Hints:
The protein is an alpha+beta fold. It has one domain. It contains three helices and two strands; from the N terminus they run H-H-E-E-H. The chain has helices at residues 7-13, 31-39, 87-102; strands at 50-53, 69-72.
Amino acid sequence: xxxxxxxxxxxxxxxxxxxxxxxxxxxxxxxxxxxxxxxxxxxxxxxxxxxxxxxxxxxxxxxxxxxxxxxxxxxxxxxxxxxxxxxxxxxxxxxxxxxxxxxx
Length: 104
């Protein structure tokens, strides 16, 4: 999504998230961002800097399902401003959402 994005840069930056639970990939055609934007009702756009929470479901065969909740840092005007959070506000929003969704 940024000038200079490349497979080499993605590999270099991936060491920031050295955790076996994290799966990383390089998507030069932005297929995942387009599919996620479509699932949110924003066809023709590309989602990035986005945080998605899903119900536990089986394998995604075709397209991503609708998330239970989402937040973003997308400055573009097309993204729903009600879901826009940055900095400490983003951290707080993600924490509250995770806590709510993890509650029995």
